[in-house]
Write a structure and sequence with these properties.
511 residues, alpha/beta, Leucine-rich repeat, LRR (right-handed beta-alpha superhelix), Immunoglobulin-like, nine-stranded mixed sheet, five-stranded mixed sheet, 27 strands, elongated, glycoprotein, signal, membrane, Ig-like_dom, repeat
Length: 511
């Protein structure tokens, strides 16, 4: 009986121990999770030992943190976590919304991962510093929640891939720093019309691996964008087109060109891959033409639009006409458009001169000069003159061709020409076949009258036989009749010794 009780007590103890083990096991399994979660979340914010809390500023810089402190106050406006060892920025780094946070500093941390939801709870951030980390790529829509962001620092990373939609949604972004990375493609979509960020006025892609620059698109950008577009210390191939772009930026005194004049380099063709300053291409190597200020040229009756392409976007613009005459509503040929440009026309000769644009703001003044040259002719008149010149040239060529045809291709009607008249071995052959004696002409005429009964077409006109004789328009000075003789079955006709003969002449012979 006692043994059975011991056994029952032992059994009861075993059951209780088994139940206690089952009850404690889940807590034991949850303990590593709690530890990992605490490690991921970071230790609670300590404003006495780890961080410095001054009003709405929380500074935890250079504290060798591996995670962001938890339980950050909701009134935090500036959070400085720079110079630590935070390698991953997860979505849960702040479980609560920090609606007042406008500055987040995470530079020099060795960051290599950004969660796609890392900025969901800090949408009011305006200044984000992610520089000097180890980021390799920027995924699509990574910064989309930051609709109020104005300045984004990403320089000195390892970024080589940027999704085209990575910066979509940043409607208020003004400055983007991407220098000192491994970018090989110029992000043209950020500054190109239709797709560009409307408020962006500084884009720094210098010191990267960009080899191809969209030169035509860059040159077509407004001056206020080009003034803040930095692409020096890259490796594009040297060309005169590249020199022209940089030289024109220098002429307009754009900061992106003038501040880094010696850093705008290109790679010369050849195996050595030697670099040289772009602004020296007009002196050596490629011998590019020197770039000068562009003037406007037009013709009478045309309309012309003069750009006031300033280095600042929001400025007040005004114009002065040649002779430093202020633009007024009384001038009907010059009208200022809504975009600040000046339209002049229909042009007259006295519209030539220097037009001045004044761009002013509270902290900025700029003066632009545009020289206009109006030619003293209309565009249509110039074309007509050109057509007249071509017509004259064509007429001259046709005349030359006709002369050549007349000289070399006109059939020869003379008996002396090959294939014409009598053969040389015939009795009637004569060395001067065009010379016709008067008696011969008379006999032939009589014969033709008898045989043909009419007068065929002839080049020779006949007068009375008794009249004075004339050959080829000249009188016979002797007045003797031609003598005829026969011999050896040959018949010859001899004209007057002093008669003038015309060999192969087209002049009619009159008797």
């Amino acid at each position: 009986m006692g043994d059975s009780l011991c056994i029952s007590h032992r059994a009861t103890g075993a059951v209780l121990r088994r139940r206690s083990f089952i009850t404690v096991l889940p807590f034991a399994l949850l303990l590593p999770t709690v530890r990992v979660s605490a490690q991921l979340m970071g230790s609670p914010l300590d404003c006495h030992k780890i961080c410095v809390c001054a009003s709405n500023i929380v500074s935890c810089s250079k504290m060798n943190l591996t995670n962001i402190p938890s339980a950050l106050p909701q009134y935090t406006a500036v959070l400085d976590l720079s110079f630590n060892s935070i390698t991953r920025l997860r979505a849960e780094w702040t479980p609560v919304t920090l609606s007042r946070l406008h500055t987040l500093l995470l530079s020099n941390n060795g960051l290599n991962f950004l969660s796609s939801e890392a900025f969901v709870h800090v949408t009011k951030v305006q200044y984000l510093d992610l520089s000097s980390n180890r980021l390799h790529q920027l995924d699509e829509l990574i910064f989309e929640p930051l609709e109020h962001l104005k300045v984004l620092l990403l320089y000195n990373n390892c970024i080589s891939q940027i999704d085209r939609s990575a910066f979509s949604g940043l409607l208020n972004l003004q400055k983007l720093y991407l220098s000192h990375n491994q970018i090989s493609r110029f992000p043209l979509e950020l500054v190109k019309e239709r797709s560009r960020l409307e408020t962006l006025r500084l884009l720094d892609v210098s010191s990267n691996r960009i080899k191809v620059l969209p030169l035509h698109e860059l040159q077509a950008l407004p001056a206020w964008i080009k003034n803040g577009l930095y692409f020096h210390n890259n490796s594009p191939p040297c060309s005169c087109e590249l020199y022209e772009v940089v030289a024109r930026w220098h002429l307009k005194e754009l900061s992106s060109a003038t501040d880094f004049r010696r850093n705008h380099t290109c790679v010369l063709p050849g195996p050595q891959k030697e670099k040289m300053a772009i602004m020296d291409l007009n002196k050596v190597n490629l011998n590019c033409s020197e770039v000068t200020a562009m003037d406007k040229e037009a013709y009478l009756e045309q309309f012309l639009v003069l750009d006031c392409d300033t280095r600042q976007r929001d400025v007040k613009k005004s114009w002065a006409l040649p002779g430093n005459i202020p633009l007024s509503s009384a001038n009907k040929t010059a009208v200022m458009r809504l975009d600040g440009n000046l339209q002049i026309g229909p042009l007259r000769t006295d519209d030539s001169g220097v037009y001045t644009c004044f761009a002013t703001s509270d902290s900025f003044n700029e003066t632009l000069y545009v020289t206009v040259v109006v030619f003293n002719s209309t565009m249509n008149g110039g074309l007509e003159n050109l057509k007249t010149a071509y017509t004259t040239l064509v007429a001259c060529l046709v005349s030359v061709v006709m002369v050549l045809i007349y000289l070399y291709l006109t059939p020869c009607r003379c008996a002396c020409c090959p294939g014409q008249g009598l053969e040389k071995n015939e009795p009637q052959d004569s060395l001067h076949s065009s010379t016709i004696s008067i008696s011969q002409a008379h006999e032939e005429t009589e014969q033709e009258r008898v045989e043909g009964g009419g007068f065929p077409y002839r080049h020779v006109g006949f007068l009375e036989i008794k009249d004075q004789l004339e050959q080829n328009g000249r009188l016979n000075p002797i007045g003797e009749e031609d003598e005829e003789w026969q011999g050896d079955n040959r018949e010859r006709r001899r004209s007057d010794a002093e008669s003038v003969s015309s060999v192969c002449s087209d002049t009619p012979m009159v008797v």
